[in-house]
Amino acid sequence: MLGALVLAAARLFGGEPAPQSAPGPVVRVVWDAPASCPSQVEVDAAVRARVGERAVDVSAIVSATAEGFSAELAIVSDTGTTHRRLASPACETLVEAVVLLAVVATDPVPTIGSVAARIQGEPTIPAPTAPPPLPLVDAAAPEPTPVTAPPREDARTRTRTFWPRLAAFAVVGGGTLPGVDAGIRGAIGIATRYVHVDATALYLGPRRITREDVTVTLDAWSAGVRVCPVVPLPTSRIELPICAVAGVGQLRGRAEGESLRNASPGDQPWVSAAVAPELAIVVHRRVRVVGGLELGGTIVGPGFTIGGLDRVWAPRRFIARGQLGLEIRL
After folding, report:
1. Residues forming beta bridges with residue 173, ordered by sequence position
2. Is CATH 3.20.20.10 correct for 25-124+149-159?
């Protein structure tokens, strides 16, 4: 009797203990991408807004490639595990694909209508509580209007196979002019994943050499071709072209002095060839920082002579130059 009274008083003044609500579904998004892509917060919000009250674990690792971006995607949900490799010229398109695949992975019976409705933020038609006899048609429920997803262009058809490119370099070396060769080189050409082909122009600034009372100022220029097969590497952030280089131009000399006589012509032909390994670091899908070493020799370069002083200067047979510059792909 006393126990019943205590229980009644507890219910009257304290009420029934409130049932604890069950924890909601867990949505976890890991987004590792370059700074030019949408942020972790933006991708997390996009996934949560579309998957609704469904648990899902999304992990995407995005890296820049020569064609744009690629992503290694893993999705774990109540319906199973999905692994995909995605590629697109734009990082925003990868986000759309990740959201779409997360929606499909969390839908027990995905259809075009249900997935498209969730992507657009509309509620889907609930499934019948009791499955009707075959065929599976709920006569009481109105037939949903099919929604056709907009056709997506295959990423492979949008992938470019070549890129026009421009490049400019600072050049330092030795063997062509007296002392240290210093100058600039420009290039315009075409790059593919397997080979680069450029038309180039090189200018080496003036250097001076003095013999007795005669001073000779020399400079050089050449135009040439570079053909560079690209060595395959396991990463898309680094490129390793090995170039064959040929150039044709002029060595130009100007002599000053009181006792000049029988000086050789001021302009002489200059032909050279070299092998030039390069290392390119991808800082953006259109921008690369390029360094290289050019090793070769002079094929034609008679040099300069002045009567009474014999030969004043001639290019060495072996030349070596280093370069550092920037490449822009259009």
Report:
1. 181, 321
2. no
